[in-house]
Write a sequence for this structure.
């Protein structure tokens, strides 16, 4: 059983394309987020969350849920629908790279 699990994980890793996030591209794409989440990921108002310093995989997951409609928000859903997987990875890496202070 353990060997089968290890083989399955190895196959999944080999089949998953390696993609390094492009933080500069994420910063450029995140310009559309600045109105609500602030230019440096620190929201100017308490009704929108800070994105600076959030965990990258958390942000990826949330953006994909908004894009798929699994998570609904009248402002975020349309914004996320315009994003590709690459955009999501890059934006998430950008915000994760920022200090939350």
């Amino acid at each position: 059983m353990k060997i089968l699990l290890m083989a399955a994980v190895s196959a999944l890793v080999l089949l998953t394309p390696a993609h390094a996030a492009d933080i500069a591209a994420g910063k450029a794409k995140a310009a559309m987020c600045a109105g609500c989440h602030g230019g440096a990921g620190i929201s100017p108002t308490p009704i929108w969350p800070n994105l600076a310093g959030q965990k990258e995989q958390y942000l990826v997951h949330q953006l994909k849920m908004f894009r798929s409609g699994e998570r609904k928000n009248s402002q975020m859903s349309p914004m996320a629908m315009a994003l590709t997987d690459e955009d999501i990875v890059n934006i998430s890496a950008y915000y994760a790279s920022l200090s939350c202070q």
User: Anything to note?
Assistant: The first helix runs from residue 2 to 15.
